[in-house]
């Protein structure tokens, strides 16, 4: 049976590109080398469940496209949202559509790693590729992230347990986890520092002082910081200064808790300063397969990574103003195009309530929790299974994902371009 | 009892999400709360029983499980049920507090599970 080698998995930001997929008569029979999540995703994406529909009635493709174009072009404040699981080609089309509409484009990044991207704009991102981590890193810190459950092959393929050229295995690496609870990743680490919830900024302040050799107040040396004895922080600071090649992976434990971008600004500053003593880098632990791509594409085209508004005819950037949660919470948006996202599952309930009150166009391979509140649903071929496309790994390395089977459905890119062309034609009349 | 709620990823939640979020398995994987053994004793709830959880944003009734957590910290899988408890305010960042939510938990005799976004 024909086996496709080096298949890119488009579930998470790790984009493992070593899957072996057996395909016969346009059907996937076996998925080798994937984690449980990736394997399930490939099989699920082989059989899209969404249908062309308008107000719950099954329609033909042309009718759904026409209604989508009508809904979006007649809105005063349309939002184009999602984009973290679709190809960069589709993301590019989505930005062009938002610009044509004079609307807003925002991605799931704004309620995922948006704060770390804001921090990066202030402090920079001293970073490296996952290949360098695999080959060189002898100290790996996971802070506020749990890849054993979110990106299950990360430890074996890129980080803690990977066999690299200079660092050849687990025994040559020190792995530290900082988290509020003993996660499966913490249990696989050499050291686990259990920090009090919401006190990361305090911990980074102490670590930074220790790394720079500054005096620490006596009450801190006595009582510790963030619920952790001082000696443990001193030991971590010594590990960070003394390693040959350190990498800090950081997750939503930092972006979603108190302090948000301030936590990350201090982490990235500390990592940059560590390079006075050794090599040290930071990588955001990104969840969706192309959420990193969404920030890259938006930045190429508009100058900004997310939360971009075109209502004045030029791009304006506004976290807190043009971000999806704020727009929906305030009730600003009067129509929404959702591409490759499920806001009914992932946004605060108050935001979902506003979505229920406005026309929503949903472009997705599957029936999701957002489907019942969508006026128009448009099925598409899933990227990396029914459609090819470019995806950006969490370290911003782009990979080309091939189609594994031939799909009867259009791609996200084709759908968005068709909607845009219909609106343009209508405006030209 | 009052405490801090942190919404988290779990392997089961991830697997169920790629099996299809409209399947009952997803509602089940995202419709519970982990509470430490000590806190379960404080509120006098048995593992598997229903508890009522509320914040300034809303309330849910969900089954509880024992979690390896410090006292006063509760965890729920990310998803529509826990999002009922997440306030939408972002403090100008775009990011709501999916973690660090002030909640109160109490036993909910006879309460029915949300199983979905609920109220």
Model description:
The complex is a heterodimer of chains A (429) and B (119). Chain A is of the alpha/beta class. Chain A is 38% helix and 19% strand. Chain A contains 18 helices and 19 strands. Chain A has helices spanning 36-46, 61-73, 88-101, 114-123, 130-136, 147-150, 154-157, 184-187, 200-211, 218-223, 230-242, 252-255, 261-274, 291-302, 324-330, 343-346, 349-355, 412-428, and strands at residues 3-7, 19-24, 27-32, 53-54, 57-58, 78-82, 104-107, 139-143, 174-179, 191-194, 245-250, 279-284, 308-309, 316-317, 335-339, 360-363, 376-378, 389-392, 398-401. In chain A, the strands form 4 sheets. A 9-stranded mixed sheet of chain A has the order 5-4-17-16-15-6-7-13-14, covered by helices on one side. In chain A, a hairpin with a 2-residue loop joins strand 2 (19-24) and strand 3. In chain A, helix 9 crosses helix 11 (230-242) and helix 9 runs parallel beside helix 13. In chain A, 58% of the residues are buried. The model of chain A has no long low-confidence stretch (mean pLDDT 97). Chain B starts with a strand and ends in a 12-residue tail after the last strand. In chain B, a hairpin with a 4-residue loop joins strand 3 and strand 4 (59-66). Chain B has a 6-stranded mixed sheet with strand order 2-4-3-6-1-5. Chain B is an alpha/beta fold and 119 residues long. Mean pLDDT of chain B is 92; it is low at 115-119. Chain B is 22% helix and 31% strand. Chain B is globular. Chain B is built from 4 helices and 6 strands.
């Amino acid at each position: 049976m024909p086996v496709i080698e080096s298949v890119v998995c488009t579930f998470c930001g790790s984009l493992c590109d070593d899957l072996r997929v057996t395909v016969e008569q346009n059907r996937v029979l076996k998925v080798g080398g994937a984690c449980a999540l990736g394997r399930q995703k490939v099989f699920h994406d082989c059989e899209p469940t969404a249908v062309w529909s308008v107000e719950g009635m099954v329609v033909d493709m042309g009718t759904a496209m026409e209604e989508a174009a009508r809904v979006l072009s007649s809105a005063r404040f349309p939002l184009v949202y999602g984009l973290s699981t679709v190809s960069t080609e589709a993301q590019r089309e989505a930005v062009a559509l938002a610009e044509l509409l004079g609307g807003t484009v925002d991605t799931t990044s704004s309620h995922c790693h948006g704060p770390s991207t804001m921090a990066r704009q202030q402090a920079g991102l001293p970073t490296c590729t996952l290949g360098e981590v695999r080959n060189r890193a002898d100290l790996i810190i996971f802070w506020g992230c749990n890849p054993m459950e979110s990106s299950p092959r990360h430890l074996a393929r890129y980080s803690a347990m990977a066999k690299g050229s200079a660092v050849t295995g687990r025994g040559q690496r020190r792995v530290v986890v900082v988290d509020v609870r003993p996660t499966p990743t913490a249990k696989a680490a050499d050291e686990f520092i259990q920090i009090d919830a919401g006190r990361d900024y305090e911990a980074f302040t102490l670590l930074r002082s220790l790394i720079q050799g500054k005096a620490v107040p006596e009450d801190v040396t006595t009582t510790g910081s963030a619920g952790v004895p001082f000696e443990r922080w001193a030991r971590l600071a010594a590990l960070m200064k003394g390693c040959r090649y350190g990498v800090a992976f950081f997750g939503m434990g930092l972006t979603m808790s108190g302090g948000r971008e301030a936590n990350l600004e201090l982490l990235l500053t500390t990592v940059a300063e560590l390079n006075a003593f050794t090599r040290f880098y930071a990588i955001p632990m990104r969840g969706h397969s192309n959420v990193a791509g969404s920030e890259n594409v938006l930045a190429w085209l508009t100058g900004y990574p997310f939360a971009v508004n075109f209502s004045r005819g030029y791009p304006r950037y506004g976290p807190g103003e043009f971000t999806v949660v704020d727009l929906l919470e305030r009730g600003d948006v009067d129509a929404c195009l959702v591409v490759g996202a499920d806001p009914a599952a992932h946004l605060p309930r108050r935001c979902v309530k506003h979505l229920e009150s406005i026309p929503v166009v949903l472009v997705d391979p599957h029936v999701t929790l957002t489907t019942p509140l969508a006026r128009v649903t448009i099925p598409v071929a899933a990227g990396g299974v029914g459609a090819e496309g470019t995806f950006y790994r969490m370290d911003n390395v782009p990979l080309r994902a091939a189609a594994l089977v031939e799909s009867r459905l259009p791609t996200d890119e084709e759908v968005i371009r068709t909607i845009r062309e219909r609106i343009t034609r209508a405006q030209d009349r | 009892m009052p405490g801090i709620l942190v919404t988290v990823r779990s392997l089961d939640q991830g697997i169920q999400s790629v099996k299809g979020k409209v399947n009952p398995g997803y509602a089940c994987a995202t419709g519970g709360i982990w509470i430490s053994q000590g806190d379960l004793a404080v509120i006098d709830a048995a593992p598997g029983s229903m508890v009522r959880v509320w914040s300034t944003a809303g309330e849910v009734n969900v089954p509880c499980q024992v979690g390896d957590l410090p006292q006063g910290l509760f965890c729920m899988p990310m998803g529509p049920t826990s999002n009922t408890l997440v306030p939408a305010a972002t403090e100008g960042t775009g990011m709501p507090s999916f973690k660090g939510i002030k909640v109160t938990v109490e036993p909910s005799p006879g309460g029915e599970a949300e199983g979905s976004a609920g109220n």
